[in-house]
Amino acid sequence: VIQLLLLIVGGYALLFASQKLLRRSERRLGPGPDESGSPVAPGQTGGVEISSFLDRMAAELRLPAADVAEVRAEIADHLRDSIASLEAGGFETEEAIREALGRLGPPAELGRQLRAAHQSTRRLLAGAGGGVIAAGGGFVLGDLLGVVLATTGFIALSGVVALLGAVGVHLPTIVENDGGNTMGSLIDAITLVAATTVATSYAVRTSAGLSRHTPGAVAVFWAGAGALVFGWLAIFGVRGPQSWPSVAVELGMPVVAVAAAFVPIERPMLHVGRWALSVPAVIIVVLVGVLVLGAVAVNVSSSTTSASAPAPSLSVCPQSDQSASCIQTYFQLDTVAPMAPARWLTDGSFSPAPYFSGSGSSIDDHASAGPSSVPAARALSRWTDVRFEAWHALPTDEPGPGGIDTRYSAPFMVQPAVMTGSDVRAVFHFERFRDAGSWWVVLTALGPDGHRYRLDDGSSGSGYFNGSAWDWLTAPQ
Amino acid sequence: MGGRIRTQLLKGTTTLLVLTVLRDGELYGYEIAQRISERSSGAFAPSEGSLYPALHALEADGALQASWRDSDRGPRRRYYKITKTGLGMLEEHAQEWAAFSLGMARAVGGANL
Predict the structure, then answer these.
(1) How far is CA A238 from each of CA A4, A84, A185, A436, A472, rounded to the nearest angstrom?
(2) Residue A375: C-alpha distances to residues A179, A351, A383, A385, A443 (Å)
């Protein structure tokens, strides 16, 4: 709860700070003041020399547009005063113009000195720091925007699919029986791309205004930084449910960062007003508070339930008939191997005791060597090649009782059993398989007759990919 | 040398001169140059080419605050105003200058002092 609240408060603070910095910075990026007219009347002698002087000086400035306009206007003002004063002192206009320009020195040198005065180390550091803060706030804003866009798109798409279905046009589905992985991960990926876009644009605008460097020069820096940071995030940093569409969209993040860095600053940028910042913040805090309290309550309730509940997959057989034959009938367990004869097992059988670890769909499958806690190595002294086998199972959300998917004749994953005391166990990471889906894990071994037998009825569940884009790309098929 | 101090001697004093004239009130660029020249009876006339970079550098350091305003006569001008930071900087520069000029006076004209 504390982490979540810190995240919300931190995100809001970043968003608020980024809006302040962005607005302050954008004032430097605008057109700036007018030159208040030329220092000499139109068509008057000397006008060309003055314009040429100002142009050559401005060419060396390499500052944001507002700064260039300010400097030009200020120097033009100075020339106007200087020429008037010289004329009052008896100079002819042409002479006065030449003298006034001469007193300012070479225009290129003046431009370079003014640039150095504007682009101080202090401002450079402010630009870099401000850019990072603005990027953080932009990421938060883009994230919120992305959630709204992606969810709206998903709802609209679902509506279109439903309408087409109503008129008899059935599109191939990509979301069935994947535990929501495809659509959920795609919404997350679109959200991240939106966040990347806003973050990079904010960083460029803020850095340019605060450091007094031209947006073009700053864009080169942020394009490189954005490609690196968001490239790393896209490939290794973002972890969660994945699918082919989401991996493809995520890998577009560094590309989007580079493109967003070079968006012309004249284009309108997304801003958030004070009220628009404050009202949703209050709503979000209240909603999250309610959700957190609800989640805590559900978590407490579910952990109490799961500790005492029997294995759900076996509950199809009535309590009065938990026999091997009933289980076999419903779950097709003989597809794996026939049950080991009881005479070859100490105390009759093994007790499966599966439990899930905390990382999504990984399972630490675990069996005990009978109720008398006989050491597993002794109990299985007549058995060889003791292993846990993971078989594809029928999805639990399909009609029917579920069970081993008989279209497969071999397990999709095998782990050797490790015996410790009375325990026999192996750890499976189904979240690292792209298409693990529903699975059934069974303990098997080669019996004294050389044939493979089932030592227990195993445990079932479903698991979907959970990791980074890199994990997805390098995952076993 | 004439009535003006050598340009080389003026290097490094522009900041002190600018901050000194701005202590009395807001001025725009051309006025600052004029005021320095008037107050020194023409002895100090900072190069106009170095005046504006100095003003902009002082603004970047937070010693001055600039704003565009309508002038009493003529068009809008960029006025400079000394800040609290600028006043501190002025005091520091003035002390340095006093120590420097006293040392120079002793070293160069010691027998006449």
Answers:
(1) 18, 66, 11, 21, 11
(2) 39, 13, 14, 17, 16
Instruction: Test A117 with B75 for CB contact under 8 angstroms.
Output: no
Query: What is the pLDDT, as a whole number, of residue A299?
Result: 60
Interface of A with B in 11-40 (CB under 8 A): 33, 36-37
**What's the CA gap between B34 and B30, in Å, rounded?**
6
ipTM of the complex: 0.85
Q: Which residues pair with A150 in a beta bridge?
A: none
- For the CA atoms of chain A, what is the radius of gyration? 35
> Three-class SS of residue A43?
coil
Q: Nearest Cα to A354, choosing from A368, A340, A342? A: A368
**Residue A74 touches chain B, beta carbons under 8 Å:** yes
Nearest chain A CA: its distance from B66 CA (Å): 11
Q: Note the pLDDT of residue A309.
A: 34
Q: pLDDT digit string (tens) for A152-191?
A: 988 898 888 889 888 888 776 665 556 667 888 888 999 9
The DSSP secondary-structure symbol of A341 reads P
- For chain A, give the percent of residues with pLDDT over 70: 76
Q: Do A103 and B48 touch (CB under 8 A)?
A: yes
For chain B, what is the radius of gyration of the CA atoms?
15
Report the range of poorest mean pLDDT among A16-25, A219-228, B6-15, B87-96.
B6-15
Task: Say yes or no to pLDDT of A409 above 70.
Answer: yes
- DSSP for A128-176 reads HHHHHHHHHHHHHHHHHHHHHHHHHHHHHHHHHHHHHHHTT--PPPSST
Q: Which one of A77, A109, A115 would you mutate to disrupt binding with B, by most B Cβ within 10 Å of its Cβ?
A: A77
The answer to whether B63 and B86 have CB atoms below 8 angstroms apart is yes
d(CA A205, CA A211): 10
Query: In sequence order, which residues have a C-beta less than 8 Å from that of residue A419 and are 6 or more positions away?
Result: A375, A376, A377, A380, A386
Using DSSP, state whether A415 is helix, strand or coil. strand
Instruction: Specify the pTM.
Output: 0.72
Taking Cα atoms as reference points, which of B76, B63, B60, B75 lies closest to residue B22? Answer: B63
When pLDDT is cut at 50, 70 and 90, the band that residue A134 belongs to is very high
Q: Does A99 touch chain B (CB under 8 A)?
A: no
**Whole-number Cα distances in Å, A234 to A3, A196, A203, A226, A240:** 23, 10, 19, 11, 12
Strand runs (DSSP E) across A44-149, as ranges?
none
**Res. B102 pLDDT band, cuts 50 70 90:** confident
Name the token pair of A95.
Answer: 């002479």
Phi/psi at B5 (5° precision): -75, 145
Q: Supply φ then ψ for residue B79, to 5 degrees.
A: -90, 145
| Contact yes or no for A78 and B52 at CB 8 A | yes
Q: What is the DSSP letter of B21?
A: H
